[in-house]
Amino acid sequence: MATVTVTPQRGILRRPMATTGWWSWFTTVDHKKIGIMYGISSFLFFVLGGVEALLIRSQLAKPSNTLLNADQYNQIFTMHGLTMIFLFVMPMSAAFFNYLIPLMIGARDVAFPRLNALSFWVFLLGALFLNSSWFLGGAPDGGWFGYAPLSTTDPGNGMTFYALGLIITGVASTVGAINLAITVINMRAPGMSLFRMPPFVWMGLVVQFLLAFSLPIITVALFELLFDRRWDTAFFDPTRGGEPLLWQHMFWLFGHPEVYILILPAFGIFSEILPVFAKKPLFGYQFVVFSGIAIGFIGFGVWVHHMFAAGLGPVANTAFGISTAIIAVPTGVKIFNWMGTLYGGDLHLDPPMLFAIGGIAMFVVGGLSGVTHSIVPSDYQQTDTYYIVAHFHYVLFGGAIFAFFAAFYYWWPKVFGRMLPQRWGKVQFWILLIGFNLTFAPMHILGLGGMIRREYTYPASLGLTIWNQMASVGAFTIALSVLLFIILVIRTQLKPAGLENDDPWDARTVEWMTASPPPPYNFEEIPTVHSLDEFWHRKYAEDETGRLVRVPAGASGEEHPSAGGHSIHLPSPSFWPIVVSLGFPILGYGVLYSWWLVAAGAVVIVVGLTGWALEPSVAD
Amino acid sequence: MAADVHSEIEYTSTGLRSTKLAMWLFLASECLLFGGLITAYVLYRGQSTSGPYPQDVFDIGYTSVSSFVLLASSLTMVLSHNAALARDYARMRLWLLATAMLGLCFVGGQVFEFTSFFREGLTIHTNLFGSTFFLLTGFHGVHVTVGILMLLMLVAFSFRGSLSDEPAFPVEMVGLYWHFVDIVWIVIFTVVYLIPAPAPHGAV
Amino acid sequence: MSSTEHRTEPDTAAPPRDTPSQHVAYHPSAREYIRVGLLLVALTSIEVMLSYSSLTGVKLIASLFLCTIIKFVLVVGYFMHLKFDNGRFSRVFALGAIGAFTLYAVVLLMFGVWRTS
């Protein structure tokens, strides 16, 4: 058994040493703990965003309803979008990347563990900062896309919270992106070349580059918005020569890569789960990888398709209509590869597989409506209607959220050493599938029937009431499914941990080679990797007829823990990340209320970073 | 800033140091940040609906001195790194301090320039020129200031003896950041100051 | 000023597991760095002179940008050491720098920026 040393360091204050106990979570730099914290926080925000959705659907269940007034409705739908995108899907992806990537590449942690902790705390504090707006004069109400000049002139502090909140969470994501990118590039186990990496890791790598290059663009736009609101600058003020269109370009230059940031992790999850539950390797692994890279690149070349109705003219619209049609191709390649994986496979329809297949199917529906948007004259009809709402919920909810559920059921034993209930998991899946389609399928009809987005009510004379009612019933059905999931989680976690088998799914990849849950140091010995699907090939060989034969334990060349073990140095816990992260909301409140707070926030950050710099990253 | 020299994470898949890769990725992302700010400036050139305008306030001679100062600071920065590589830490600290001093001169020069603009009626909210100019140069100035702080920290840590077992490395990393800030200025100087502004909006 | 000349093998592919990642690239001497510095000073002087000259329009902008680009490349190549370092660093930086230039050029194009200057 290897011995782990975590020794105290010189530094200004005594370094925290505990790796267990609830206080240790505040100072942890362990990617697994950080991943779990990302997961729990983002799930709570999922529920919050879901409540906001239920309020929307309750208001729209009847024509001319008075449950919410226009002002309240604007805040609710804005925060629903912001919460789901920035406080749920992105950090939930971060949860999975953080937990799984080091394990999948055979590493002990990420490249910069304290920076990892910083990303999490800055995210959490930024999310709380944004939501504090509810209690401080009203939440942002200009839509998640914050179009100027509404966003610049909107009275109250809501849109200022928007700008500041997104700047803060943007810092968290940028730092995390650099960390994870370098981890993938530089921390792989011996023998794990780039093309022996699991597809989930590849998608992760592409996502980090998308984040690193798109976030600075929106950061500039958000600062310009902030300055227009707070200090009367002219960036988007048409009366002084400013161009509201500039906001749209800057926002969507970020916003389009953002949607690929939201969906590529899901593509990675599907690519991991399908082979395990079809007992077949991923069909066309290299195509899956290259199409992911292609989506990343082309994703920077389509942003104007969000602006077809903005009056840019036929040349711009045509060029971007074409590029948008083109980006459907690499995505289609993936769909066909997934189908190829399933074809002829020995399919096991456990909950992970149900959610994965369901998710792919729902994503395809959304992808098809997306292709219709790329035809510019068609988009003139669809834009700003519920048809668009249908599209992005099919790809985002159908794609990303179904993928997350698949991932929960699949990796729960790895993370927590317990299995979620399988029979009830299938029930939860069907309720979700039915509820989801009941909610969003009618929106295609609503959109083409003329119902406009972002309006707090609609008249009965529109003749679309029945479809609205269906959607509202569907929304509560989704809520039922999520509630069921929460109950299943609570019941599972209340039972003691203890799996009969560390590899309950008979999986293929390196993270399953270690205990479930893994020890703090991940692997007794870092494995040497010889192929893609390394774990599978250690378990199975093929006989003369091509059939799989189980390799006897010990003969596979698996590394065994060395008797007595050499000591493993793990990065030590630290409180500097959380200290530094506190500076950010203080800065934010300072911009809103007082220059003294700005100074205080800056001091906290500088002092925190200095203390951090004085502290050696790894125990001697 | 202690380099992870003793950790088991010493081995890397590329044979390159993680911190250095991270720094370059960070600088690549900063290109998009400054690119956005410069784009706003270029887009809005000549679009201000009222003055003061660039030709009213700019003093190219004065600003070019600032440019020389910042360029010189990049030179002193590489000399400091050279000294660190040669394990001449006294000389390293000297050149680091020189770099920080030159950086302070630059920032001081900016502050003086800005206050003279304020007196001439140009603030960040006066017009588009003020907004784009001050946001761009302000962001750059903050970056320079952060750089100066890091340089001074390097010197302080070096005196304290806590600048890692291999001081040349953190010096190199801060150096990369510093040179980047310099090349951003190289672009700003040309785009903002040297390329002549069009005639004011509405003028012949 | 001491002239410290380091000549060692350039970066190779990933070293064997046991060796710590070493910085084994060629380092310019102090003299070379100073030469680059003087070149930068000269180029900046040319830029300033150009701005005071009678050149206008496209000719002025093109010559100014030429000087700027050369200065940029000199600092990135020599001071930031990319000329002597592993190609991966250059590729990562180029992705950002060229990507930024391209994206923003397209945005400016859509605003017809070149019509006004």
Strand arrangement within the widest β-sheet of chain A reads 1-4
Q: Tell me the number of strands of chain B.
A: 0
The CATH first-level class of chain B comes to Mainly Alpha
Helix content of chain A: 55-70%
Just name the CATH architecture of chain B: Up-down Bundle
Evaluate the radius of gyration of chain B.
20 Å
Oligomer: heterotrimer
Total discrete domains of chain B: 1
DSSP helical segment count of chain A: 18
By helix and strand content of chain A, what is the structural category? mainly alpha
> What is the β-strand count of chain A?
4
CATH topology description of chain A: Cytochrome C Oxidase, Chain A
* Helical content class of chain B: over 70%
Strand coverage percent of chain B: under 5%
Distance between the termini of chain B: 57 Å
Descriptors:
heterotrimer; B: 204 residues; mainly alpha; 72% helix; 0% strand; elongated; disordered N terminus; C: 117 residues; 4 helices; flat
Notes on the structure:
- The complex is a heterotrimer of chains A (620), B (204) and C (117).
- Chain A has helices spanning 24-27, 31-59, 70-104, 113-132, 150-153, 158-186, 199-231, 244-278, 285-298, 314-342, 351-373, 376-382, 386-416, 422-448, 465-494, 534-539, 576-593, 595-614, and strands at residues 4-5, 540-542, 548-550, 568-569.
- Chain A is mostly helical and 620 residues long.
- Chain A has a single domain, classed as Up-down Bundle (Cytochrome C Oxidase, Chain A), CATH 1.20.210.
- In chain A, the strands form two sheets. Chain A has a two-stranded parallel ribbon. A two-stranded antiparallel ribbon of chain A has the order 2-3.
- In chain A, a hairpin with a 5-residue loop joins β2 and β3.
- In chain A, α8 packs parallel to α10 (314-342) and α13 (386-416) runs antiparallel to α14 (422-448).
- Mean pLDDT of chain A is 93; it is low at 6-12 and 555-565.
- Chain B has a single domain (17-43, 60-194), classed as Four Helix Bundle (Hemerythrin (Met), subunit A).
- The model of chain B is unreliable at 1-9 (pLDDT under 50).
- Chain B has 204 residues and is an all-alpha fold.
- Helices cover 72% and strands 0% of the residues of chain B.
- The radius of gyration of chain B is 20 Å and the shape is elongated.
- By secondary structure, chain C is mainly α.
- Chain C folds into two domains: 26-85; 86-117.
- In chain C, 63% of the residues lie in helices and 0% in strands.
- Chain C contains four helices and no strands.
- In chain C, α1 (30-52) runs antiparallel to α2.
- The longest helix of chain C has 24 residues, at 87-110.
- Chain C is flat.
- Chain C starts with 29 loop residues before the first helix and ends with a helix.
- Chains in contact: A-B, A-C, B-C.
- At the A-B interface, α6, α7, β4 and α18 of A face α1 and α5 of B.
